Amino acid sequence: MDNKTGDSQDTPPLKGVVVIDLTQIYQGPYATLLMAKAGADVVKIEPINGEPSRLRAKVGRGSSLSMLMLNTNKKGVTLNLKSEEGRRLLMALVKKADVLVENYAPGVMDRLGVGWEVLKEVNDRLIYASGTGYGLSGPDRDRLAMDLTIQATSGAMSITGMPDGPPLRAGPAIADFLGGIHLYGAITTALYRREKTNKGALVEVAMQDCLYPTLASNLTFCYNSDGKVPPRVGNRHGGLALAPYNVYRTNDGYVAMVCVKEEHWRNLVKAMAAPELLEDERFATNVLRVRNLAEVDRVVEAWTSSLSKDEIASLAQLHKVPCAPVRDLTEVMNDPHMHQRGMLERFDDEDLGEVVLPNSPLNFHGTPRIKSTAMPGLGEHNDEIYSQWLGLAQDELDALKTKGVI
User: Fold this and answer.
1) What is the distance between the alpha carbons of residues 267 and 288, in angstroms, rounded to a whole number?
2) Residues 152 and 294 in one domain
3) Is residue 240 part of a domain?
4) H-helix segments, 79-227
5) Of the candidates 355, 347, 349, 348, the residue with the CA atom closest to the CA atom of residue 60
6) Which residues pair with 129 in a beta bridge?
7) Is the dihedral of CA 68, 73, 79, 81 positive or negative?
8) 206 and 102 both lie in a single domain
9) What is the C-alpha separation between 249 and 256, in angstroms, rounded?
10) Of the residues 325, 347, 367, which one is the last residue of a structural domain?
11) Which of 126, 149, 197, 364 lies 20 to 30 angstroms, CA to CA, from 164?
12) Helix H or strand E encompassing 323
């Protein structure tokens, strides 16, 4: 990365940053997607047969929507790191790179002979980023980790679900994507430091570590109840400290509503056209409403169930009460607001046809959003990267393909 380019503000902030992407599934690919969408040159290196997300697909050149979502705006090559020639090629690429990102299990890259201790000698300015489930150190380092298992061991699953039901996982892959976001943050922070020190670094993010801060409300319950285990509370506040705070039935679906301030409660009472509630001592303060949670929810749902979710949301907006309709994914995918902001875009994929893809949530004002480009086919850019970057002749490329190196 050149820190003397004199780039103007409308230049993507990571333009000129070269990223070697050895990631797979969700966590790592999301971190490198954010980098690509910020202007970095990302080269995704896959095994000869492709990464697991590609292998899940059954159509065309190997597209699936999740694979496409996380791998647009990258170039793709294949490389067999179990071969000596493959390792030499990776080291040659690393010499030209600013960042290498991997989310293999701890120790895999070391066993292949291309871990941090080796690659830092190849390029002392390299930012080597590792995304794992439990981290590169500690007694749980080698435990197998997936989003589901991290939700379980982090405690997140224990507080998710209804009071009389079993622990539930959150619907979204929260551990994977929180891990990817933090990995992006670690990489860009390390790049910033490198501008001052001119030295590379090893940075790591563990998915379990990323989930712990999200438990703030529930951990507060622990402290306020002398270590009592927080219950599963369904859609109520995790610390049982706010009321109303729930999902309420309407005549055509549900709305989510919360009153954080006393002003919100007073505004809700106005929206409900029920001024008598302000005189009810059970509801006079948030503390009292929490003590009478069931009655608060009964009163609120008696009102919401008489109207549609959009009518409730509109009334709440008019009276400045935090509230939103519970939407299905089809509604969200076609959300005019997100499309107008450029967060969602319609994309014509060679295999899947027209799909809706997310842009980066990182919005750099003054810099145009980078439009999505096609996900690379397996090994699509082998010739370009290995010939233009490393100077290999066509006969050398042919030989490497024959030997199963690329």
Assistant:
1) 17
2) no
3) no
4) 84-94, 108-112, 116-122, 147-153, 174-197, 207-211, 216-224
5) 349
6) 101, 203
7) negative
8) yes
9) 9
10) 325
11) 149
12) strand 323-325
Q: Which domain holds residue 302?
A: 254-325
Tokens representing 216 are 């703030």
Q: Which tens digit of pLDDT belongs to each residue from 206-239?
A: 999 999 999 999 999 999 998 899 999 999 999 9
* Chain centroid offset of residue 124 CA: 29
The catalytic residue positions are: 237
- Contact assessment for residue 78 and residue 21, using Cβ atoms and an 8 Å cutoff: no
Q: Which single residue is written with the structure tokens 């506040």?
A: 237
Number of other residues whose CB lies within 10 A of the CB of residue 97 = 24
Can you give the pTM of this predicted structure?
0.93
Rounded-to-integer distance, Cα 305 and Cα 315, Å: 14
Rounded to 5 degrees, what are φ and ψ at 375?
A: -60, 140
DSSP H or E run through 171: none
Query: What pLDDT, in 10s, does the model give residues 68-110?
Result: 999 999 999 999 999 999 999 999 999 999 999 999 999 999 9
Location of structure tokens 């899947």: 352
E strands, 133-264, in order: 201-206, 245-249, 254-258
